[in-house]
Amino acid sequence: MPSPEFSVQYEDIAGLSSQEEDPRMFASKLTLATLAATLPSGSSGSDTIYLWIALGAGVLALAAALLFARSVLSADQGTPDMQQIASAIREGAEAFMARQYKTIAIMAVVLAAVLFAGYKMYGPTAPLAFKVVFSFLVGAACSGISGYTGMFVSIRANLRTAAAARTSLAGALKLALRGGAVTGLIVVGLALLGIGLLFLLFGGLGDNDAAKQVPFQLVGFGFGASLVALFAQLGGGIYTKAADVGADLVGKVEAGIPEDDPRNPAVIADLVGDNVGDCAGRGADLFESSAAESVGAMILGAALYPVFGLKGILFPLIVHAINIVSSIVGVSSVHSKETDDPMHSLNRGFYITSFLALVGFAAGVHFLLQDRWWLLAAGVVGIITSFLFVSITEYYTETRYRPVQSIAEACKTGPATNIITGLAVGMQTPAMPAIVISGALLLSYYFGVKGLEDATGIADYAKGIYGTAIATMGMLSSAAYILAMDTFGPITDNAGGIVEMSNQPHEVRDRTDRLDAAGNTTKALTKGYAIGSAALAAFLLFSAYLEAIHDIVSRRVAAAGFVLPDGWSFSNINLASVPVFVGALLGAMLTYLFSSMAISAVGRAAEKVIEDVRAQFKENPGIMLGTSRPDYARCVNIVTGAALKEMVLPGALAVLMPVSIGVLFRHLSTKFHLASSTDLPASFGNVVNLSGAEAVASFLMVGTISGILLAMLMNNGGGAWDNAKKFIETGHYGGKGSEAHKAAVVGDTVGDPFKDTAGPSLHVLIKLLATVTLVLAPLFV
């Protein structure tokens, strides 16, 4: 681990904050002071310029987000009725977010204290306690800010989009996408600035040893981002689906009223849920992906320091800088005619973004990776993987393809056959994505080895794993635009609800329906993208965990006066070892138990919503007659309290299990340990103990595999159920109100917690497991 002499003078830097209230000015002074403290000790100016480029791109992202937000917020706000409905949605979303983030903040502070105590009590990690906990808190804060600010704009963009739809579909499309772009740019910008500034603050521009060690000290940032993302996605997912299920079952099925009908007491809670689940939750999810992927890739880049120097460590930050620039251009290029399909316009922006990202990626390989074009090929593999995931998701969730149509056809014979067919389709959906992931990992690994075959003194495993890291960067190189498309969905969904509840003319609803249809597609497609990027990022983080264990062992051995054997690596996990097998079994089990808890939470919260809606219809008959207004706030308060209560236990389980396994098996090693190739020579004595680290590695790997496959089943199966209902609503098999439609509503209700709660939360879970193990790796050895 790094020695104390490479620390920055924190008290000098902290003193700047008292002289300037503007956080942007403070950030600028912070980076300048840190550079002054670290640059003389060994970094070359030609290399450090890339860090400044990355930080500049982060500032550009926030500036562009501000400009997009101003253009959205300055637009027309529509009629007083529209403003009144939007105000109720905004108040409900802000109230939930305030309570949710207060709960998350308390848990984060408690966990930070435990983390600090754990590091301080353990001798080898004591010097790192402050840095790891500080980076954890910064990561958590940035994740929370990215989710909240994105939702802040989306709950205002919905009203402006609805107002614009009164006169122009093209204008409404532009406003909705720019509202979504605010979330995308803030997410990537804050991830880039947070990691870049911490790298400076921790002495990353110091001498060679400091530069190689700082990435390991940034793992707390990824852990903080993961923790907030899990609770934001889980809490938001429980909220949105509990409100949706309650509104649909009582409103559509029992009362026979249309979707978004103002007579439904749960309709405002449903519209609030679109924001807190799909906007804030997904924003925190992709922030976590960007942050954790960057830290993991920097750790692997540190292993190649003899080849690339500082450039290999900074390359992930440059990729995100490219992501920002290409996404800004892509969003700005989207325009549409009144007769165009909105999806075509959105796809055109995605193609432009991807092309620019590829060009920028090639420039990055030229300037930072010594023209090793095989590594560019690995990045292209990642970009192609993102396209394939989107296409596969489209096939399984779009109404024009056989899977959705087969579920709709099954509705003719009732809800039971709808459920059976939907489950069968859901179980089929992981097959092709698993093949794509396998191909991407194999190809990128091969390209990594080819690209670095002339690098001496570097193991082929390290070369290949860096290739997989490059592929992950390639897949995330258009993340800001993807997130803009994702947030476009709930904005247009809300806009349609506002138009419906304010009784706008039929042609206005037709425009918002076209936007909503495109939004439903983008939400489904970005879920596919999210799980694909999570899969590659999780493997990257697993590799970073193995590298972290190797680094810890080498330093422990050196401190004890021994020399690590040539060629030793922590990359062979013995599956015949009982702790390893048990760790793997528990990892697979966790994904199912976690999913069960998430789905059960939706069911319990939905029951409370259903009871309240039924009670309001019974207490106030004037609601159904349209002569009196439901108590929307009562329903919002019920689902808010239920969602916050239900999110705690699944989240705590995800954090505690890997810690328990690592610590437990570390102390049971003498009873269960089986000799393996990772064992150190007996002459070393008890310098290190790898049993806990091995058990956690198997837990992490098998939990990741199980989580990926289960998330695909839930995301695509739930999306297929949803669109089967929409397919029938277009007039097939009797259309709305038919027996087939009632069966489809049941299937859609079953799929709701799959695709919007458990599935997306699993994306976050598999990355949280990786970041937890990275942060706590020293405690397992």
Task: Give an account of the 3D structure.
- The protein is an all-alpha fold and about 775 residues long.
- Helix content is about 80%, strand content about 0%.
- α4 packs parallel to α9, α8 (about 220-255) runs antiparallel to α9 and α8 packs antiparallel against α26.
- The protein is globular.
- The model is unreliable at about 1-45 (pLDDT under 50).
Q: In summary, what is this structure?
A:
By secondary structure, this protein is mostly helical.
Short key terms for the protein model shown above:
single chain; 781 residues; mainly alpha; globular; disordered N terminus
> Would you count the extended β strands for me?
0
Calculate the mean pLDDT score and round it.
Answer: 83
Q: Give unreliable regions as ranges.
A: 1-43
Class inferred from helices and paired strands? mainly alpha
Q: Whole-number radius of gyration?
A: 26 Å
| Series of secondary-structure elements, N-terminal to C-terminal | HHHHHHHHHHHHHHHHHHHHHHHHHH
SS field, number of helical segments:
26
Separation of termini? 14 Å
Shape: globular
Described by strand count, sense and barrel closure, the largest sheet is: none
Secondary-structure blueprint:
Layout: H1 10-17, H2 23-38, H3 45-73, H4 80-121, H5 129-164, H6 169-201, H7 208-217, H8 219-255, H9 267-303, H10 305-308, H11 310-332, H12 342-368, H13 373-397, H14 402-410, H15 415-428, H16 431-451, H17 460-475, H18 479-501, H19 506-559, H20 578-619, H21 622-625, H22 632-646, H23 648-667, H24 669-672, H25 691-729, H26 739-776
